[in-house]
Amino acid sequence: MSSSILIARNLSKVVPGTESDLTILDDVSFTLEKGASLAIVGSSGSGKSTLLGLLAGLDIATRGEVELAGQNLGTLDEDGRARVRAQHVGFVFQSFQLLESLNALENVMLPLELHGRDDARARATELLERVGLGHRLKHYPRLLSGGEQQRVAIARAFAAEPDILFADEPTGNLDTQTGQHVTDLLFAMNLERGTTLVLVTHDGRLAARCKQSIQLETGRMVELGTHE
Amino acid sequence: MSRLSYQRLAKLSFSYTLREARAGEVKTLFFAVLIAVLVSTAIGYFGARLNASMELRATEFLGADLVLRGSAPAQPAQIELGRAQGLSHSSVVEFSSVVATDERIQLAAIKAVDNAYPLRGELRSTASLNGLDQAGGVPGPGEAWAEARLLAALALEVGAEIEIGAQRFRLTRILTEEPDRGRDLYSLNPHVIINLMDLESTAVVQPGSRVRYRDLWRGDASSLNAYRAQATPDLRANQRLEDVRDGNRQLGGALGRAERYLNLASLAAVLLAGIATALSASRFASRRLDNSALLRCLGLSRRETALFYAAQLVTIGALASVLGALLGWLGQHALFALLKGLVPNDVPSGGLLPALTGMATGLVALIGFALPPLVALCRVPPLRVLRRDVLPTPPGLLFVYGVALLALGLIMWRLSLDIQLTVSLLGAGALAALSLGVVLLIALRTLRKALTNGPLAWRLGVGQLLRKPGLAIGQILAFGLIFLAMALVGLLRGELLQTWQAQLPENAPNHFVINVMPHERDAFTSEVHRLSPSASPLYPVVAGRLTAINGKPARANLEDDSQGERATRRDLNLTWSETLPPDNQLVAGSWWSSDQGNGVSVEENLAASLRLEIGDRITFDIGGATYEVPVTSIRTVEWNNFQPNFFMIFKPGTLQDVPVTYMTSFYLPSSDESGALALVKQFPTVSILPVEALLDQLREILAQVTLAIEFVLLFVLAAGLSVLFAALQATIDERLHQDALLRALGARKQLLITARRSEFLVVGAISGLLAALGCELATYFLYRHTFGLEWSPHPWLWLLPIVSALIIGGAGLVGTRKALTTSPLTVLRET
To answer: Can you give the residue ranges of the ABC3 transporter permease C-terminal domain (chain B) (predicted)?
Structure first.
């Protein structure tokens, strides 16, 4: 059995423009092993988030294919891709994406309940304690600081024990110090749970903590590096 | 990992709904449905209970709930059918016969009744002319009860013997009130009641005699309906089933209008709640676009997301419906408690039906108005978690409006507005909304050009509308509909009350006079006018039979048992008059001029049933002489006014040398009853029929209807105002966001207030204008086709634009004050 969890083959994304078609991602290929970490870096508009969307099965490529956890996403319909996400994928977003009407505990319970887990409450409490928010279980997102909201989001991302975690600019909305704490937490939990991590960032220090990195420029992959 | 079962997903959705109950949009949606159900249930109960109570009183006019009427005895199977339904039964046989004493004879209306008679109302009688009357009982075998005027006509006293046919009877009591007398207000002969067991021995009823058989039924509504449904297909040509509406014109009209008004008011209330549901459902959906994308991201399929949100809506709808129905039920109870003393104590409970239909109405409104936003919600691409600008493909317009129209149509149909009316109202409404939308779009575009160099506050305020004209038009139409619904219900209330007051003024005639002989005419006229200056003129009355139309037998080509066919089987009361009676109106032909020959004016419905047109020649047999006369006009008659009314009015001079008596009606205060007695003594052959009891019954019923209508109007106005605020709330998010942004950029409060004021004033004024226009159109249609009222323009409606501009302007400013009082950062983070 292959040890690769994510394979991208000649990925391209073209969207219709006002005058002619616009290529926002052009011929990107790489392979990621289980438990590895990959940073996708590049300036604004370089196609980072587009690539992340394609890799996570949130969007479909115009050309090329993505194989996630052994499944070729291009051959699946949206519901099929949703199943793959449900079984293998966790997310952390720049804007946290917490449900405003649910408190911290309920937000973390959400994916567990969607998976039909009976121990959702206990497991979510445990995870929130792990991210240092055991005393904030009943707090609503608007009463939490940005750093705290992102820690709730990280707890939620790990709740369903995903094989691979996609993080889109996880520190983009946080100050340097808070961002540092959140990054530490993300990597620590990644290590503890043996999760594969793919993150999009333009923070060089964050990228340097990943074992691999991809540099994008105007949709093209200009560098595929490895770090020790 | 196993997938979620649908059951588990629904359960999860339920628990999330409860967790999200704090969210503003969930509350708004909940309250919109709650109001829809509360108002429908309360009006439903109020209307149904009051209606049942009114009908209960009204059935007394009929002596029963339902009557099977025929010119031959009912079939045993027809009677068995009613008994099988558990209905109480009573038989009545009516015919005209001569009542004879040893010296004199008098034609009388005989009614043979069984011991169960009457099933509704009371038969009242007295033992002596000046004695107190009592309720109850029927004549025993060998006994007859007669009206006082029979005693006067035959110079009899109680205890005397009379003959009807081959049977002798002892006059044991004097009849003072018969419950089913209302329909025979115009009958000329004195009434006599005997026991049904004596009928055969009179030998009066022979094959071919003119006899009316009435089988009276009483029971609960469902059994009556079942009986009606089963019996109707097997009715013979000479049989009819009648309830109180068919049996009494005055009441039928009032009850029918009241019921239609209550239905229209419920419809207005449901429409209001529907608008609130649509707006809050749309807000519910737009605030969940991110959440929906997140759920998809977390692995829910489109179908599962749809189920998740549908279950949320069903949860909200079900909870709001149950609570709304409960509150509606409690509300109408509180109302009846408040009205204690004004309404009868024995108001029927109303059953479960109004609550169930109230809940169904709320749920149908929810599905109809919330389904389109829900569909949009399920189409959110998961990519939205990364790119907020990604929006779901909106469902087709046909789907959005089709579903809403279908829901509205279902509700309207449920409220018994018939299918043709439902379709035409919906069609006209959709067409009007479409054309108004286009006009508004053009107007807004013109406004945009005009404002290019206008003040900043106006550009900001009205610009808000111009940026998304589709949304602005939707809002204006919604507000317009809210004002339209309220104005319509208010307007109709006024008209109906006015009509009823006009129908039954304080001094409505309460005495009918018949049998005034020609030689008594002048003396009687002056005496009556002395007692009652407002008495109607004396109309000549001649009994005549319609025998031919255009030379052919009158009955040929007429539908069996139609009004026209029945009119050919009995003598009609004919009259002549120089002038058109005050409450009559010509609909065809012209009133006679002096140089014109003979002619007759025919009542509109009878003319239609007889298929008469202007110029047709109709033949009457009057006392053996034949008169052929052309139809010169067709006119409407106000049957509800308690004045002498006639199907046929001849040109004076057309009928020559015919036996004539005169009739009139007049008002006498009940304190002046001695005046009527004096009149009876002075003119012993004249029959004076007091109808005060009938009028009192009618007044009591109309007072209840009025009460119902007043309270229903209050319900609708309260619902309208709360919906207005809910609707404003639902459209306010974006305005809050923009205001916060402007404040962050340094705009002063005054600028924002002026901008908001300009925007809401424009929205309010245009909505009011639409409401005024719509209201005039709708009343024009409804007055003519549903309520049978005269329509004329309502100038005060044109105050609506000002009123609505003030209300929406004020409410809008209050609603958006948060943007002025809270820090811009807080608002920006929250919206």
So the answer is: 264-374, 711-823
